[in-house]
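Today's session is about reading a structure prediction critically. Students often jump straight to the picture, but the first step is always the sequence itself: look for stretches that repeat, for charged clusters, for runs of hydrophobic residues. Only then move on to the predicted structure, which in these notes is written as discrete structure tokens rather than atom positions. Here is the chain we will use throughout the hour.
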Amino acid sequence: MIKQDCNNEEVVELMARAKILVHPSSIEGQGIIMLEALSLGTPIVAYNLPAYEGMLLNGRNCKLARKEDVKGLCDGAVKILGNYDFYRGNCGGLLEEFSEEKVMNVLRGIIE
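Below is the predicted structure for this chain, in token form.
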């Protein structure tokens, strides 16, 4: 199903109901959607990109594939579903590091 024109509440509801977030982007600047998914307990399958370092822990809260490796994405999804409770249970552990307060402190340090 493809759903378009979702408001924020609908996006949160859909993501919370999802078993996995598959994010096949080969270019990513920040990865905010990843933090949103993890905060809702949704494991992730994505390409291994520098933007995800420290946020996505391969084999814990996600499965990462080499860039452009579509088969690797599929295999990762199967692995997560095969051990779903483990992956789901590891989604929230690092979110404190990306809290609004910590991000703002980093930005203040850069600006000052």
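Discussion point for the tutorial: The mean pLDDT is 85.
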